[in-house]
Design brief:
This protein has helices at about 15-35, 50-60, 85-95, 105-120, 135-140, 155, 175-190, 205-215, 230-240, 260, 275-290, and strands at about 1-5, 40-45, 65, 75-80, 100, 125-130, 150, 165-170, 220-225, 245-250, 265-270. By secondary structure, the protein is an alpha/beta fold. The chain folds into three domains: about 1-10 and about 205-290, 3-Layer(aba) Sandwich (Cobalt-precorrin-4 Transmethylase, domain 1); about 15-105, Rossmann fold (3-Layer(aba) Sandwich); about 105-190, 3-Layer(aba) Sandwich (Cobalt-precorrin-4 Transmethylase, domain 1), CATH 3.40.1010.20. Strand 2 (about 40-45), helix 2 (about 50-60) and strand 3 (about 65) form a beta-alpha-beta unit. It is flat and about 60 Å long.
Amino acid sequence: MNVIRARTAGFCMGVSLALRKLDREVDRAEEKAAQGSPRCRIATFGPIIHNPQVLEAYAGMGVRCLRQVDEVEAGDHVVIRAHGVPQQQEKALRSRDAVVVDATCPKVKKAQLGIEEQCRAGRTLLLFGEAEHPEVRGLLSYAGEGALVFGSVDELEGLPLQPETEYFLAAQTTQDRVAFEVARAWLHERLGHEVPVLETICDATRLRQQEAIDIARKVDAMVVVGGFDSGNTRRLADVAAAQGVFTVHVENESQLPVEQLRGCGIIGLTAGASTPKSIIDATQRFLESL
């Protein structure tokens, strides 16, 4: 089986940075314990990234995943997830007697602050994203009153837009660039003027999606590897499938539909921004063995 593997597959800068920060806290805790000091409790606030294998590995190291601020105990070292958290939660975390390490992706943090600046200038946010995604909940916390979220152009068309309101447009950092531009054009037509835009979709997302499209146009089937909870991985699968090629999204090689793939001559392989290289490698080896 011939496999074309995306060069952009695997950890992005934001994920790598978040994991390095968490690893540093784990290492420091182990060093203190080795010196005879009590081992401090390490936790993340929400899943550090959306990958089940990575989360399982950290759980095996004793890292807890907290969901509520009141779960934080005195002396805890708490690492904020790569997706960021609502600013009210961050303030509450920092009010606890704990060490708080912010592992929010720098691209997400930039989006948060950009949204806050626009809203302070009197504009109202139109956010292209998944309403229930943790990054989106965090972004909205910087937007104040009146912010509107839409997950598609169809949803945008159904929003109660007011002609007298000064809007600005932003997106979840891992959103589909093409769909974002369609939304931008629709707003221009609907409101009769260009809406100010925050360019919040990160370059890594754009490059991954474009490479997935390019590969999908050359192959008989496309395999996308990554957590089912990972929004950026789901969108890679979406943009690949939109090219008309059979596309499957799996979390590891054991989930591959072997019989459907066996007859393919060339298979494309890409992976989400939170997928470890070891899982991508294992998937590639399995595909090449078919």
